Amino acid sequence: MERSIALGCSQGCFSVSVKTDFVPVKIIGHRGLGSTAHLCGNGSTLPHTYFPENTLKSFQAAIDEGVDGLELDVINAACGTAMVIHDDRLNTKVEGAAREGTDCGRVSALSAAEIQRLNVGQGEAPPTLQQTLDLFADANLKRQAQGLDPLIIQLELKGCDVVQTVTTAIRPMIDAGLFRAEDFHVCSFDHAQLVTFKRANPDIEVSPAITTTSLFGDDQLMPGWTPVPGATYRDEVFGELDALQEDMLFTSLDCVMWDVYRPMVNYAVERGHKLYLSISNVRDLDERYLLIVLAAQRAGAEVCLITDEPTHARRALQRLSDELDDATLCEIWSIVAEGCADPSHSGAGDVCGDWSHAATLTSSNFAEVVLSHPPQYQRGGYLAHAKV
After folding, report:
1. Taking the CB of residue 349, how many other CB atoms lie within 10 A of it?
2. Nearest-angstrom CA–CA distance, 99 and 112
3. pLDDT mean over 216-240
4. CB of 72 within 8 A of CB of 156?
């Protein structure tokens, strides 16, 4: 369904046709409902509405909030047990330990029993992968009774030799009918491990986690690992992905939100790949990033959004999709009209320039406009006047 509205603003008057159908983006709880903030000093930086990340309490809270899936990190303990925890270096996560100067050891050097005596916040211990999967299996039984789809389970492989332990944990549960192979999505920055995992589990989806450095190169990065204004992808990027795809047979890509420019979306759409996009704390980032999610979706990509704030993200996406109203669209066009100093990045044809003539914003060139103007070099904010 589309609706047409007439707009008037400082750039002139123009008519707009906006697609109002909303196909829900899949929302995945990043490490459950756990803040990505590190513990520091003698206490936790976690707001009271959060739970310690990668814990059973955090995963249950995310399930209770109605997420479509859950993201978690897997590292092997010294005894070979797969543990759910983000960092091998424990003093970045253990309650009461400073990130620097306190040596709490490493996951890979301790037994599962030793790790489970640790407190990563609110009295919670890091769970084993098996304990976590048992929780998800119970949740899926309740979801089935409610007519809901099974949870998407995104496992990030970390550390050494984790392929076998993850396979050993999930394969019997698939064989027992507790999960389907398609419920799992396995990713890693260690692409060699992903190739090994895919060969052992050809029916499970894998996706390479893509670093900002590999996309842009070191010379186009700012402090904080974000691209400089006007950054472009390296010429070799998509050839490298094609070569990797031959070995890995991936069907999706995993990257952070600020790395998503139009060529990445085009690449995914042309090959039928899904996009798993991480945004972490929605409230801590400018919510114009959520417009990139909608733009990628309207360009034809299947999108899963990985976020610490699943309920807020879902509501904001719904509102944006429903309320691309006069003020919001005028704001978008204002930014585009004023922000096209670099024509090589506009990708918007005659959108830049004289606004005295009529223009039409369709669902297709909405995607073109948003994705061709990544947030690093937009002027103002798309959502400055939006009700989000």
Report:
1. 12
2. 22
3. 88
4. yes
3-state secondary structure of 286: coil
Who contacts 18 (Cβ-Cβ below 8 Å, separation ≥6)?
A: 2, 3, 4, 5, 324, 329, 361, 363, 366
Query: Is residue 208 helix, strand or coil?
Result: strand
3 state DSSP class of 298: helix
Q: Between helices 363-371 and 262-271, what is the axis angle to 10°?
A: 130
Query: Average pLDDT of the chain?
Result: 78
Residue 375 — very low, low, confident or very high, per pLDDT cuts 50/70/90? low
Task: Print the domain residue range for 187.
Answer: 23-323
Choosing from 299, 323, 347, the residue where a domain stops is 323
Q: What is the pLDDT of residues 79-117, one digit of tens each?
A: 999 999 988 888 767 776 655 656 778 999 999 999 999
* Residue 6 belongs to a domain: yes
Helix (H) or strand (E) holding 336: helix 326-338
Q: Which residue has the tokens 């990544």?
A: 374
- CA distances, 268 to each of 164, 246, 261, 299 (Å): 29, 15, 11, 10
According to DSSP, residue 356 is labeled S
Give the count of domains, the chain: 2
Residue by residue, DSSP assigns 225-270 as TEEPTT----TTHHHHHHHHHHHH---EEEEEGGG--HHHHHHHHH
As given in the structure block, the two tokens for residue 136 are: 């998800």
Q: Tell me: do 1 and 38 sit in the same domain.
A: no
The pLDDT of residue 98 is 58
Contact present, 225 and 213 (Cβ < 8 Å)? yes
Worst-scoring range by mean pLDDT, 42-56, 102-116, 212-226? 42-56
